[in-house]
Amino acid sequence: MEVGFIGLGLMGRPMALNLIKAGHTVLVWSRRRESMTPLLEAGAGDCASAAEVAQRAAITISMVADAPDVEQVTLGAGGVAEGAGPGHIHADMSTIAPAAAQSISAGLKARGVSMIDAPVSGGEVGAIAGSLTIMAGGDEAAFDKIKPVFEAMGKSVTRIGDAGAGQVAKACNQILTGVGVAAVAEALNFATRSGVDAGKVREALLGGFAYSRILENHGQRMLDRNFRPGFKAWMHQKDMRIVMEEAHRLGLALPSSAATAQMFNAMVGSGLGEDDSIAMLKLLELMSGGAGE
Q1: What is the active site of this protein (predicted)?
Q2: Fewest C-beta atoms under 10 Å: which of 86, 177, 262, 265?
């Protein structure tokens, strides 16, 4: 298929490269011209705006930071809606609030464009490997048409329901991963401060009911002091803000999520926002009187 890709950051760049590897014709645009270079070198088509991307491709994808960015590249000046023709499908794979996804979807629908909200899980590693988990919301017929494109980027592709449903699933994902990171960081810090080998504690816990992929993968990275960002702390902070805003809107008590959101706030406030979210361990070490390096 001929696919347009808008937003070529940490996640978007490898996702677009996987579309090229799968044999799709890819057209790209990004606000940062230098972000386009690896894609252009791989054979992608060069576009001057999101509108041009939509004009030249029947399917477009956006992968940007937050809801205002999605709204700008879809409904704003020079956006997808300006260039899209009849039957155009736009997939937004960013993580935004469900209500924002529904609003943008309605705005695009009024201009003849079908939108699928399709946030992902798996981080930079999953984006590079093409093994992302993709959670989609939107029209079923449009989803069926775009599903082969998703399958070039992810190993698990699920339509959850109507517009906004993909973002609800992603919020649930961020609750589990955020609280999970906090729990693993607390456990390893507790082990170390108790004077025992945190690596051996992790090894023992992997054999019992405490096992999780976060303990296995991120726990080892914490022990290795590998805080290179695959998913930056400020991004997880943003996602937990979405969770808490939705909780307030729905009148829900999410106590574990609330505490975790505060920890991510503290990470960003302590200058750890550009580190991986697993650098929560460093924050806990600082709070416990350690070096946190």
Answers
A1: 170
A2: 86
170, 232, 238, 282: which one is catalytic? 170
- Pairwise CA distance, residues 147 & 141, whole Å: 10
pLDDT tens profile 158-215: 999 999 999 999 999 999 999 999 999 999 999 999 999 999 999 999 999 999 999 9
Q: In this structure, are 10 and 142 located in the same domain? A: yes
91 contacts 119 by C-beta, under 8 angstroms: no
Angle, nearest 10°, between helix axes 233-250 and 255-269? 140
Residues 181 and 123: their CA atoms lie apart, in Å, by 14
Q: What CATH number corresponds to the domain at position 146?
A: 3.40.50.720
Query: Whole-angstrom Cα distance, residue 132 to residue 126?
Result: 5
List pLDDT tens digits, range 129-147.
999 999 999 999 999 999 9
Q: Is 170 a catalytic residue?
A: yes
List the domain range (segments joined by +) for residue 89: 2-163
